[in-house]
Design a protein that fits this description.
With 448 residues, the chain is an all-alpha fold. It folds into two domains: 183 residues, Growth Hormone, Chain: A (Up-down Bundle); 216 residues, Growth Hormone, Chain: A. The protein contains 14 helices and no strands. The protein is globular, with a radius of gyration of 21 Å. It starts with a helix and ends in a 40-residue tail after the last helix.
């Protein structure tokens, strides 16, 4: 046992060093700091906005509309705003979106703002988020040096987002006590301004799509890119399934056996903490087949552990394990992200990411609604088990497809031969972009 510890420690140090190595590049470090600044304020402000609306209306429905207003832009107009963003320089889109969101939250921080304006403000800030995320994903891809650097930065970005979620849940209440709801909203507005300042220091980039391309054609091209490639279809399935499996427990945490606010906060924080740990261990290099197999195993493993823990969740310790395990399903984006990077061409990349984000966010919205309805019928535990069972079944199905494709494509290189024609098999690997590998694509990202 003693002889294994140095090796284990060395392996962990090497993994940590690999994750932070991309931050040596000034542009990537600036982009990461901008993400950290905006997301830390954003998650605290979500709690503050919900508390403020509830204090003014004493209505659970109105409070729930805060989350709905934030997510609807992704599901409804995310691809359209991403397509528009693809026609503009990335940096300009990101700075403009940050300035708009900063101004919105600074206005919402003014005392006396009525509830309808608070909801409209949440919607306006939500409308600015899809083009920002699409432009950031595309710019991140264009700053990448190679697959290893991309995979490491993708994992680091996912972990950073989950740190922001966990700190937002755990520290949001403290900020409200310290600064009040209005002060917390103002702090979030300031965080967006800091992000805009950091983004403005990034190099300028040309738009990927000319203004002469019709918007409808641009959206159609993005959809064909995303769904016309077997690897990318698998990534969509992985992302949507993970969003369902992870969102059902997240949406029902406060309703679990009438949990106290403290226990509900611990349950909700368990998922991002577990996701951070798993993301640090998942491989981020290798061919498409290997990475998609890893992502599928994440669905099967996380879902299966969560199901077992939910069955024993009469103990709060097992409930924590159940919520933590269900949260690890979101780690599919760490393994699948490099696949997306390699297979998305530079032109239309932001549009394809907007469509992918819309699909995963639609999965989140449907999971919240269906999970709540199912919980009313069979209880919270069995509703959560249903979402995790979907993850296990989907992951097992994808593993079967990958194994069948591996056997069919034996001796044909690293790419998988298509399975069943238009099925889910991987097509032979193709160039991700007409530009050199120094300009590459980005991560599967879905807000939490």
């Amino acid at each position: 046992m003693l002889t294994l510890q140095p090796r284990t420690g060395s392996r962990l140090l090497a993994r940590t060093a690999a994750l932070v190595r991309p931050l040596r590049i000034r542009e990537l470090r600036t982009l990461w700091l901008a993400q950290l600044a905006s997301e830390l304020g954003d998650w605290a402000s979500r709690i503050a906005l919900a508390v403020l609306v509830f204090d003014q209306t004493h209505s659970a429905l109105a409070t729930g509309l805060v989350t709905t207003a934030s997510l609807l832009p992704y599901a409804l107009v995310g691809p359209i705003t991403a397509a528009i963003a693809d026609r503009q320089p990335r940096r300009r889109v990101m700075v403009g979106a940050d300035l708009l969101r900063g101004a919105v939250f600074l206005i919402l921080a003014v005392p006396g703002v009525p509830t309808p304006v608070l909801l409209i403000g949440a919607l306006a800030a939500g409308l600015a988020t899809p083009p920002f995320e699409a432009a950031r994903s595309a710019m991140r891809s264009e700053l990448m040096v190679d697959d290893a650097a991309y995979g490491a930065y993708n994992a680091l970005s996912v972990m950073t987002g989950q740190v922001a979620v966990a700190l937002g849940y755990l520290c949001g209440g403290g900020l409200i006590l310290l600064l009040g709801t209005r002060g917390t909203l103002g702090l979030n507005g300031a965080s967006f301004l800091v992000s805009a300042l950091l983004v403005s220091r990034l190099p300028a980039s040309r738009p990927a799509t000319g203004l002469k391309v019709r918007l409808r054609r641009q959206l159609g091209d993005g959809a064909r890119i995303l769904f016309g490639d077997g690897s990318l279809r698998m990534c969509v399935i992985l992302g949507v399934t993970a969003s369902v499996a992870g969102t059902v427990p997240e949406a029902l945490g406060a309703a679990f056996e009438h949990a106290s606010p403290t226990r509900a906060a611990l349950l909700l924080a368990a998922a991002p903490v577990a996701l951070i740990l798993v993301s640090a261990l998942i491989p981020v290099t290798g061919d498409d087949r290997r990475l998609l197999r890893v992502a599928s195993l994440v669905l099967v493993g996380g879902g299966a552990i969560a199901i077992g823990a939910f069955l024993l969740a009469s103990s709060f310790g097992f409930a924590l394990l159940a919520w933590a395990a269900s949260g690890t399903t979101f780690a599919v984006i760490v393994a699948a992200g490099p696949v997306v990077r390699r297979r998305l061409p530079a032109e239309g990349r932001a549009v394809a990411f907007g469509i992918l984000q819309a699909a995963t966010l639609a999965g989140c919205c449907l999971a919240g609604l269906a999970g709540g309805a199912l919980a009313d019928l069979v209880g919270v535990r069995f509703a959560c088990i249903g979402g995790c069972a979907l993850a296990v079944a989907t992951g097992a199905g994808l593993l079967f497809v990958l194994s069948a494709g591996s056997r069919a494509g034996a001796g044909a290189g690293t790419g998988l031969a298509p399975v069943g024609g238009a099925g889910l098999g991987l097509a032979p690997a193709r160039s991700a972009s007409p530009v050199p590998t120094a300009a590459a694509a980005t991560a599967v990202a879905g807000p939490r």
